[in-house]
Write a structure and sequence with these properties.
Number of helices: 11
CATH class of the largest domain: Alpha Beta
Strand order of the largest sheet: 3-2-1-4-5-6
Order of helices and strands: EHHHHHHEHEHHEHEEH
CATH topology of the largest domain: Rossmann fold
Structural class: alpha/beta
Radius of gyration: 18 Å
Largest sheet: 6 strands, parallel
Number of strands: 6
Organism: Pseudoalteromonas luteoviolacea NCIMB 1942
Protein name: 5'-nucleotidase
Number of domains: 2
CATH architecture of the largest domain: 3-Layer(aba) Sandwich
GO molecular function, one term: 5'-nucleotidase activity
Pfam family, one: Hydrolase
Length: 224
């Protein structure tokens, strides 16, 4: 295989990230029936915050607190408490994407695998432990702890330092979000594979090296 190192995104690349179910699970603890309308209102706040975070304009704490400020006021609970509850709910309901375990097992003997995620530290290790995937990864790099988020090249530089600075020609980034995963790989100068989910479109100015629509297809691409 061409690549000695594979860097994976986490959310919707290796693991389902069903934010609606996670929020329903969270708010059920407060006897709140969280609806699709509630979720749409939440996303009006949450989605722009993620863009600001990826652009380095706000930090992780600001994102996590601000997205729950309105609900905190409504329920007289601190946004920090709601955020921690949400991440715990997401860990509780986490499942791998189809083909994830097969892919990791197939790559495991001969390939160094790591995760670079813009997700938050309170979720990552719990999710890896729940799925039994921890042992597959040499490094789990969390933007919140590094202080910068994908697509900033510094996240990739930090990861490469941890991995002993492998040859860039032998490293592949795999992710589902063009504006963080693929753009970040492009800026850092490594190959990328875009995991395209149904209905997603890649911006014309962002060019992945490869494109697949499932992890099974990625396994075939890498190991055929």
């Amino acid at each position: 295989m061409k690549y000695t190192h594979i860097l994976f995104d986490a959310d919707e690349t290796l693991f389902h990230f069903d934010a609606y179910l996670g929020l329903k699970t969270l708010f059920a603890e407060y006897d709140v029936e969280f609806s699709h309308t509630d979720f749409n209102e939440y996303q009006k706040v949450n989605a722009p915050l993620w863009l600001l975070y990826q652009e380095g304009k706000i930090d992780a704490h600001t994102l996590q607190v601000t997205r729950f400020t309105a609900w905190g006021d409504k329920l007289s609970i601190s946004p920090e408490t709601l955020n921690i509850g949400f991440l715990n709910s997401m860990a509780q309901i986490c499942t791998p994407l189809p083909g994830a375990e097969s892919l990791l097992k197939a790559l495991n003997p001969n390939t160094s695998m790591s995760i670079i995620t813009n997700g938050f530290s309170a979720l990552q290790q719990k999710r890896l432990n729940k799925t039994g995937f921890s042992h597959f990864f040499d490094q789990v790099v969390i933007s919140e702890l590094v202080g910068v988020a994908k697509p900033d090249p510094q996240v990739f530089e930090h990861t490469f330092d941890l991995l002993g600075n492998p040859n860039k020609n032998q490293v592949l980034m795999v992710g589902d979000t063009p504006k963080s995963d693929i753009l970040g790989a492009n800026r850092f100068g490594i190959d990328s594979c875009w995991l395209q989910h149904e209905g997603q479109v890649c911006p014309e100015d962002i060019k992945p090296t490869y494109q697949v629509n499932s992890l099974n297809a990625l396994q075939t691409l890498l190991l055929s």
